[in-house]
Amino acid sequence: MSMAASRRLLHLLPRLELCLRSRALSIPLSSRAQGMARRKLVTCRQGAFEQGNAARDKAVPIPDKVLRHCKYANGRALDLEPIEKNFANESMQFSFEEETDDMVCEISESVVRDVEKAAIELLAARAFTVSELRKKLRSKKYPFDTIDAVIANFKSRGLLNDGFYAESFSRSRWLTSTWGPRRIKQALHQKGVPEAEVDQATRRVFQDGDDYGKEATFGMSEASMDHLFAQASKQWQRAQSLTLESRRARMVRWLQYRGFNWAVTNAVIRKLEAQHPPP
Questions:
Q1: pTM of this prediction?
Q2: Rounded distance, CA 250 to CA 265, Å?
Q3: How crowded is residue 109: how many other Cβ atoms within 10 Å of its Cβ?
């Protein structure tokens, strides 16, 4: 190749680099050739590449024959693969990307099934609030977005309902352990139940009942006050050997620990002293 042709090729190196980059070609060069090409490209970048995309749009396509047999001034050959092979590589890349998308979709569906199975096993053992179930599933290292999607699905199907859970929990603690509204609300808040659901559940348990429609006394229905008094009477009778002041203090601690306010506590103690006067 003549010296003029070699200079022409060196002048076209910036455009050649753009073409090669767009085709994602791998060019094996010696270290000396790479250094020479790099110095030439730096010089060209200071001029032609300052125009950005405009210079790229004006790039003149180089014939395949020149690309395959071009030489540098030092006589070292630059072997390039045919353009047709690059088109085949691009097609293979597109096919691989499509297969990868299908694989990711399949993996995602598998993870969703695993999360659903784990959630059902947990709910089969006992009831959970939405917050509790989310924490349990996250502890198993499942993806957060998949967990949220499964929980939303379960809520729409009625498998998760914080309102039902709060009312069931409140009624159970009230009837079996004589917990008051304050302690039940505290426990439900720790379980992540929203404030509105907590208030509605405790109101149904302590204020609504057979005497629905009547004004509740101290925030508790008449049936609830009767149930509380029956449980407090048992505790009062167990402390017959104590002095009146000690029995009062013990009853106050018993009622306050279970979450009853001072108005309810005072009313219960006065009724106990009236019905069970000291000897």
A1: 0.60
A2: 11
A3: 10
Q: State residue 217 phi and psi, 5-degree precision.
A: -95, 125
Rounded distance, CA 50 to CA 213, Å? Answer: 82
Q: Answer left, alpha or beta for residue 52, where phi above 0 means left and psi between -120 and 50 means alpha.
A: left
Q: How many other C-beta atoms are found inside a 10 Å radius of the C-beta of residue 150?
A: 25
Measured CA to CA, the distance from residue 28 to residue 76 in angstroms comes to 12
Amino acid at 172: S
Say how many residues make up the chain: 279
Task: Give me the residue spans of the domains in the chain.
Answer: 3-81, 86-156
DSSP track, 202-238? HHHHHT-STTTTSPPBTTB-HHHHHHHHHHHHHHHHH
* Tens digit of each residue's pLDDT, the chain (279 residues): 444 544 554 444 455 444 444 444 444 444 444 555 444 443 444 444 444 445 444 444 444 444 444 444 444 444 444 444 454 454 445 444 444 555 545 558 899 999 999 999 999 999 999 999 999 999 999 999 999 999 999 999 999 999 999 999 999 999 999 999 999 999 999 999 999 999 999 999 998 755 544 556 788 999 999 999 999 999 999 988 899 999 999 999 999 999 999 999 999 999 999 987 776
How far is the C-alpha of 268 from the C-alpha of 279, rounded, in Å? 19
Q: Can you tell me the distance from the alpha carbon of 76 to that of 152, in angstroms, rounded to the nearest whole number?
A: 66
Structure tokens at 41: 């490209």
Distance separating alpha carbons of residues 171 and 23, to the nearest angstrom: 71
Residue type for position 186: Q
> For residues 6 and 11, what is the distance between their CA atoms, to the nearest angstrom?
9
